[in-house]
Amino acid sequence: MSKKPQYDPEEIRYPDQKIEISPLVPEMEKSYIEYAMSVIVGRALPDVRDGLKPVHRRILYAMYEDNLTYDHPFRKCATAVGDVLGRYHPHGDASVYDALVRLAQDFSMRYMLIDGHGNFGSVDGDPPAAYRYTEARMSRIADEMLRDIDKETVDWDPNFDETRKEPKVLPSRFPNLLVNGSSGIAVGMATNIPPHNMREVIGACICVLEDPNATLADLMQHIKGPDFPTKGIIMGRSGIRSAYATGRGRIVIRARHEFEEFGKDRTRIVITEIPYQVNKRMLIKNMADQVEDKRLEGISDIRDESDRNGMRIVIELKRDANPQVVLNRLFAQTQLQTSFAVNMLALVEVDGKLQPRILSLRHILDEYIAYQEQVIVRRTRYDLKKARERAHLLEGLLIAQDNIDEVIKIIRSSYDNAKENLMSRFGLDDIQAQAICEMRLIALQGLNREKLENEYKELEAKIDWYEKVLGDESLVRQILKEELTAISDKYGDDRLTEIQDVEDEIDIEDLIEEEDCVFTLTAAGYIKRTPVSEYTAQSKGGMGKKGITTREEDFVVDVFTASTHDYILFFTDTGKVYRKKGYQIPESGKTAKGTNIINILQVEQGERVQAMIHTRNIEDEENRYLMMFTRNGTVKRLPVGTLKNLRNNGIRALRLDEGDRLISVRETDGTRKVIIATHDGQAICFDENDVRPMGRDAVGVRGIRLREGDYVVGAARARAGKTVLSITENGYGKRTPVEEYRITNRGGLGIRNYMVTEKTGPVVGIKVVEGNEDLLLVTQGGILIRTPVENIRSAGRSTQGVIVMRFKEEGDRVISMALTDHEEQTADEEEAETAPVSPNETTEPSAPEAPVQE
Q1: Whole domain around residue 537: which residue ranges?
Q2: Is 224 helix (H, G, I), strand (E, B) or coil?
Q3: 205 in any annotated domain
Q4: Half-sphere exposure of 83 toward its Cβ, with a 13 Å CA cutoff?
Q5: Does residue 24 belong to any structural domain of this protein?
Q6: What is the pTM of this model?
């Protein structure tokens, strides 16, 4: 008789085990995205706050824990590598040692963070000695990276095995991302940030602290350009300006040379500095190979005469060679001239999560300054807490000193309740009594009242100062300015890399061809720029071309044509406005969905772009205004010229009352009439001059008086001869001539715009239309319909309109409307439209093309 198996193979062995079946393709996509983000955040890209990748941060912190600071003896690199691996970084030892070595190389780092002792490689490409031979400690400037880390200035994460904590970011009391630069390759993206001069970068930080409206030109008065540790010469400033304005640019670097006469009518070229990240040995070998292959002519000999006094590469020329021609060929055919492709990609904290962003110079400075202000505030809170604790303790000691004989008598006469007796007798708390009990008798007898009082007064002064700092943001910025200045004075040095002007050099905007482009924004926040040339004209009766690929639930909400050199103003529902040049919007093909706007603008969580306005020159705009309308019926007229000083993180264009939000922005010229429509079917039409021009900080004035529960759903410019298209939640709509809306004073209850009933539902929105557009309606259930506006009947204001859209599912409703260019239908589509449709049936058309701008 066979034994019964201990378990049934068909059963799950573990009660809590759960098996999930997942399709291969979605599972692979999800897993690869998770892997990519792990590489991006956890390995390859630096944090904008301290400019370090995780491995570099862990190296510095592990050495800090072991007291391997500049004022302690060197220790073997094997010690640091082992500590980093065992505590924080469970990867290969080679990766940790390579990262440590780079931090100690004077030809890789502008300001070395590791002080190396031994062979750490050379500019010739020689590898460093093994970590069992080399020694290292933190450099003096690296102490500034970790200063105040023990004062609760940064957040902490558990390490890989949760046995200890590691800092998410270092305090970094100088802007290390710009000062030392960074390079790295992640999954689908790479970063390449050049190093800069400490004195120049801190000067730019102070410039921003003193003038929050500082422009790029102002910043470049301080930061002239990258400053490479291998010196060299940067040719021209256009690439630098492009990189600082957009986060991307190409900088040309040349070796420094001089001509020397020798022998009889002979000349040689002497190279004393080479471009950044060029291997000197491979450079010389490449030149020699080209001479041997006859690709470089006029050279008789190449020698490397570099020594401890500096670099010296000698290129001897033949007697009949033209030195300048040979030099030009060397620049063109060898790495004596290279280009540094700047791509300022770094991790930025957004809603508590790190996300990769391409950053302009101003954006990097703003992020760093905001972080340092946070560090100062957190440090001050810590110091305040410690000062209060010490002052509280001193209060107890002063009481004990006043009653020293009685205190000693109580302690001597108590068995195990001395603390309780002291608390009962003198009104001390547990902390004060415990401190007295823990003091040695000789120390207790030797308490000096004058010394205690002086310390207490000093603490009171410190507490007052700390409280003042925490209550004054301008004081925090002043402290940051002073501390940055002190670091600049202590560690700053002169620029190494020269910047030479290039004849006929042009500005970044001259480098970018000016052309008209179509700018498109979708409801989900995707934006793109497409050259007008991609939208070729078609003959009458054409079927059109797909203008954008969107997700099923997404659709285009705004589009216009503007130049790449125009300013684009973005207005959000919170009343903020952001500005970008047209060329700063990423270009995409006409069928691409574009780039999410959060990758372009520093919008906050939940903030949504409500309108886009384009203009050529903000500073010189006269008689041009922006009419802003809010949900609660407020209207404001803002001169365009007041928006000339815009920052990367936007400025306030409209101050909103609590619970209110911006819903529409319209450009006017001082002669317009505007219409405001409400949810419950009211409308008001008035002259824009009824609203006086106001500054950015103004709240605005009442545009329409709302009954209880009502709110504004849309606004438009009233143009003679046009019609007002109104759509309701239940899919009804109508067109009403503009002339039926009589002009009244602003601030009233208005007149009826729509006969709202239970059958029609409330109004969703309005548009002033020509009649030759197509209407796009989107429902709560994600259904989208496209219909010609001319098919919607014209009717009076106090009517219910006609059915524009029917719903598949009961309870569905229209949530938004947009206009788009009219698209001619094919015979098949017309036949499908004329076919019988059930009362609850509608259609789901393909993704819409760009809508026209009202």
Answers
A1: 512-834
A2: coil
A3: no
A4: 19
A5: no
A6: 0.64
CA–CA dist 798, 626 (Å, integer): 31
pLDDT band at 457 (very low <50, low <70, confident <90, very high): very high
- The more confident residue out of 822 and 102 is 102
Q: pLDDT by residue (tens digit) across 106-140?
A: 999 999 999 999 999 999 999 999 999 999 999 99
Closest CA to 849 of 614, 589, 559, 564: 559
Give every CB contact of residue 443 below 8 A, 6+ residues apart in sequence: none
Tokens of 384: 């305040």
How is residue 16 written in tokens? 């809590």
- Inside any domain, residue 183: no
CB atoms within 10 A of CB 502: 13
Of the ranges 203-207, 317-321, 660-664, 786-790, the best mean pLDDT one: 203-207
- Pair (469, 545) in one structural domain: no
Long-range contacts of 470-477, Cβ-Cβ distance < 8 Å, separation of 24 or more: 470/377, 470/380, 470/381, 470/384, 473/373, 476/373, 476/376, 476/377, 477/209, 477/373
The mean per-residue pLDDT over the stretch 206-214 comes to 92
Q: How far apart are CA 631 and CA 137, in angstroms?
A: 61
- Residue 97 is which amino acid? Y
* Three-class SS state of 723: strand
pLDDT at 300: 92
Query: Domain holding 65: CATH number?
Result: 3.90.199.10
Q: Across residues 391-401, what is the average pLDDT?
A: 86
Q: Which amino acid would we find at residue 706?
A: L
754 labelled catalytic: no
Whether residue 407 is found in the same domain as residue 293? no
Number of domains the chain is built from: 4
Residue 158 makes CB contacts below 8 A (sequence gap 6+) with 164, 165, 166
Is 102 inside any structural domain?
yes
pLDDT in the model for residue 536: 45
Tell which phi-psi region holds residue 294, choosing left (phi > 0), alpha (psi between -120 and 50) or beta.
left
pLDDT in tens, 496-548: 999 987 755 545 555 466 777 878 787 778 888 887 666 544 333 333 444 44
Is 228 within 8 Å of 110 (Cβ atoms)?
Answer: yes
User: 32, 35, 70, 133: which is the annotated catalytic residue?
Assistant: 133
Q: 627 and 712 in contact (C-beta within 8 Å)?
A: no
**Range 704-714 average pLDDT:** 92
DSSP string for 175-216:
-HHHHH-EEEE-SS-EEEE----HHHHHHHHHHHHH-TT--H
Length of the chain: 854
